[in-house]
Amino acid sequence: MGACCTKDGGCTGSMGDLVEWKEDEAGEEIDIRRGDDGDLIRLKGPSSFTSMYSQQGRKGINQDAMTVWEDLSGEKEMFFCGIFDGHGPQGHRVAHHVRDNLPSKLSAALKVSQRHQRKYSKVDVDITDTDDDSSGNCNSRVDIKDRPRNPYSQNISLASWEGSFVKSFKETDEELCLNSSIDSFCSGTTAVTIVKQGRHLIIANLGDSRAVLCTRGDNNQLLPIQLTVDLKPDVPSEAERIMNCRGRVFAMEGQPDVHRIWMPDEDCPGLAMSRAFGDFCLKDCGLISVPEVSYRNLTINDEFVVLATDGVWDVLTNNEVIKIVSSAKKPSMAAKLLVNHAVKTWRCKYPSSKVDDCTVICLFLKSQPTT
């Protein structure tokens, strides 16, 4: 693929050919590209299943990035959604680099796993069943189309999913380290990503952005289920790893609730998350780019998933977020509605603070109209 020159981030990676760039009737930008495998790469604008929106805060350039890939790896109705919250002097460039390169690396890793899966599936199909049936025919052959379908019969196993995510995150971080055009020594980004295929939802998280599922309870009420852990330095298992690597964890005097990672002998850089892409000054001090991967089997009660940067979660609860999204008159406008609420809440709660960048992707689990 050729380099992708985006309006907000310059030429940052391999993203495919431009399919559509325009403004809709509401003045919102739509930016869609096509990948090598037929993937539809959405950087801005809604689809039948997604709503996405990002707004710059008051701290300078918007360091958030987001993307939705439809038909990932050429697989029909396989969705990849990712949100990246950059930090540091070149955090925006790191976030764009990861946005533009991580999905294609994940796609490549998935293809390798799928080839292995098909190889072993073929061996399995060639083995005849030996269970007795009522007619006494012990060696009756079961045709593949009559076999009970294993949840992953046409997909890779959960362990392979985790391996593919870990591999692609590692390769993306290594490539970032070698990219001399981006100074990522003290700049980095979070990543909260999901892949949905059928009823399978795989979540991979790095840092303190968050994914929340909206589902319906016994009385049809909307309930939030947090799918990720905010990976911050004060999480006990994270703090233990950091300190075992000689990194230090403590909060600054003026921010007692915000624990940060510090180098062994210097009071810098004070990173408020325990996992991230980039930030290579801390990679020997316990900061890692290994994602926490989890799985959820979706049900008919599940409505949508919200991915958002901490600019949203710092001021709104999980319950408030799902109520705002579900109240949108048009699902296509849900992400913008949520961002607007977050910005207003920032101004009310912290009038003397600068509003953070706010970025949201909503993945609706049942098709929704875009108009």
Automatic annotation (TrEMBL):
Residues 49-365 form the PPM-type phosphatase domain. It comes from the Eukaryota. InterPro entries: PP2C (IPR015655), PPM-type-like_dom_sf (IPR036457), PPM-type_phosphatase-like_dom (IPR001932). GO terms for molecular function: protein serine/threonine phosphatase activity. PANTHER family: PROTEIN PHOSPHATASE. This is PPM-type phosphatase domain-containing protein. It comes from Carya illinoinensis. The lineage of its organism: Eukaryota, Viridiplantae, Streptophyta, Embryophyta, Tracheophyta.
